[in-house]
């Protein structure tokens, strides 16, 4: 079947010649805290992208040998990057937590006809996060 | 407790006004009165020209949705005492064009609802002689929550995505599509997927989650949409890996 497009502007013509159509304010996201929180999460994805970039640069430096890697590490020690990385870390954490809290909404698992409660699915996600983080830490700290 | 409360009600006459104004009425504040009782009091005793929609007074017809102090609410289920000492702001549902006073124009929603095909689709109807389509209680449970939707549009008034982009199909239409997708008697999931996996449908949703919070029937449209995103992605991967598949 050919996909039908949603793409048509709603037409209001039949019976009402004049309705009042309020314009949404540019500052709609300040109307309520949930809206503000939402926009904050959307905007700060830039920081997540930054984190990915840093990691890619790190891998590239690693590929170029010990000297390049040492240079990369030295650059990371600059106060500006340290502060930036702290901010980035805070937002990556926010994204991780909100993402895991979302998981039970998207994943509905039934075992033996019974729905697995949402907190358990979130818990499994957090558990996996902890285990993987522990393994990575073990590698990095030269286990 | 004071024995009256002020209601600041939006008034708009398409014949007279360029933009809505607010008019204040004083109504009795009684323990058992909801916002709708206040509006009915105004209509019956103070100003018969006030226009608004309502019908059942028991949270099932879905026609008395309005903004109460900036929050989308069923006015038949919102007690005046919650807002004492007032005043209480009563406005038409946000993001919809206003026809008159508190009445909004909802044709856009009805068109979108049709697009999501909220009815049972069968490839082939069973002959009548074979009886009805049976379901177990568990199979009913899978979609029952989504079937509780009363089309009151509170979720649309809570959704900034719908406010900013009127092409977005919106929470209730998507939740109702899921209601049929999850019904074991239905065979229309593939047909709906083509329509609902578009940008203006599920992918328009950025998961603000407010639709679920304001839903008076606990339908959880945000959950329905996120589940549908997962289904759509899985189907897309399947069609990528098995392009000869028969979906």
Q: What does the secondary structure layout of this molecule look like, with pairings?
A:
The complex is a heterodimer of chains A (143) and B (247).
Chain A: H1 33-43, H2 45-63, H3 66-76, H4 79-106, E1 110-111, E2 114-115, H5 118-140
Helix pairs in contact in A: 2-3, 2-4, 4-5
Chain B: E1 4-11, E2 21-28, H1 35-46, E3 65-68, E4 71-74, E5 88-91, E6 98-100, E7 103-104, H2 107-115, H3 137-147, H4 154-158, H5 160-164, H6 171-181, H7 189-196, H8 210-214, H9 221-241
Parallel strand pairs in B: 1-5
Antiparallel strand pairs in B: 1-2, 3-4, 3-5, 6-7
Helix pairs in contact in B: 2-6, 3-6, 6-9
Describe what is shown at a glance.
By secondary structure, chain A is mainly alpha-helical. Chain A has helices at 33-43, 45-63, 66-76, 79-106, 118-140, and strands at residues 110-111, 114-115.
Account of the protein in words:
The complex is a heterodimer of chains A (143) and B (247). Residues 1-10 of chain A have low confidence and may be disordered. Chain A has helices at residues 33-43, 45-63, 66-76, 79-106, 118-140; strands spanning 110-111, 114-115. In chain A, 64% of the residues lie in helices and 3% in strands. With 247 residues, chain B is α+β, with helices and mostly antiparallel strands. In chain B, strand 6 and strand 7 (103-104) form a beta hairpin. The radius of gyration of chain B is 21 Å and the shape is elongated. The model of chain B has no long low-confidence stretch (mean pLDDT 92). The A-B interface holds A 1-10, 12, 14, 16-22, 24, 28-29, 31-32, 34-35, 38, 42, 102, 105-108, 113, 115 and B 12, 14, 17, 19-20, 70, 94-95, 97-99, 105, 107-108, 111-112, 115, 138, 141, 160, 163-164, 166-169, 190-191, 194-195, 198-201, 206-210, 213, 220, 222-223, 226-227, 229-230.
């Amino acid at each position: 079947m050919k996909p039908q497009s949603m793409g048509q502007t709603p037409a209001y013509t039949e019976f009402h010649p004049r309705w009042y159509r309020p314009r949404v304010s540019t500052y709609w996201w300040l109307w309520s805290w949930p809206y503000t929180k939402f926009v904050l999460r959307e905007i700060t994805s830039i920081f997540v992208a930054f984190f990915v970039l840093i990691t890619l640069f790190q891998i590239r430096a690693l590929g170029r040998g010990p000297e390049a890697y040492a240079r990369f590490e030295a650059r990371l020690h600059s106060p500006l990057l340290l502060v930036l990385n702290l901010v980035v870390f805070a937002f990556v954490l926010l994204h991780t937590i909100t993402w895991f809290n979302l998981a039970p909404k998207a994943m509905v698992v039934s075992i033996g006809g019974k729905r697995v409660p949402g907190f358990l699915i979130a818990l499994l996600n957090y558990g996996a996060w902890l285990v993987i983080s522990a393994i990575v830490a073990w590698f990095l700290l030269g286990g | 407790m004071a024995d009256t409360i002020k209601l600041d009600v939006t008034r708009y006459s398409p014949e007279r006004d360029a933009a809505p104004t607010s008019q204040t009425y004083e109504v009795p504040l009684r323990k058992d009165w909801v916002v709708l009782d206040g509006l009915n009091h105004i209509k019956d005793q103070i100003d018969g020209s006030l226009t608004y929609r309502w019908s059942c007074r028991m949270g099932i017809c879905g026609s008395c949705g309005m903004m109460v102090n900036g929050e989308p609410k069923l006015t038949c289920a919102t007690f005046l005492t919650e807002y004492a000492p007032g005043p209480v702001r009563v406005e038409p549902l946000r993001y919809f064009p206003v026809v008159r006073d508190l009445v909004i124009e909802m044709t856009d929603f009805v068109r979108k609802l049709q697009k999501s095909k909220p009815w049972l689709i069968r490839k082939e109807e069973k002959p009548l002689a074979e009886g009805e389509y049976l379901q177990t209680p568990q199979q009913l449970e899978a979609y029952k929550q989504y079937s509780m939707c009363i089309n009151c549009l509170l979720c649309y008034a809570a959704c900034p995505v719908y406010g900013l982009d009127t092409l977005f199909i919106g929470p209730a239409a998507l939740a109702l599509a899921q209601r049929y997708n999850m019904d074991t008697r239905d065979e229309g999931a593939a047909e709906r997927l083509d329509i609902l996996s578009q940008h203006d449908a599920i992918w328009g949703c950025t998961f603000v989650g407010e639709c679920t919070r304001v839903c008076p029937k606990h339908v959880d449209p945000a959950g329905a949409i996120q589940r549908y995103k997962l289904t759509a992605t899985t189907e897309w991967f399947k069609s990528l890996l098995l392009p000869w598949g028969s979906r």
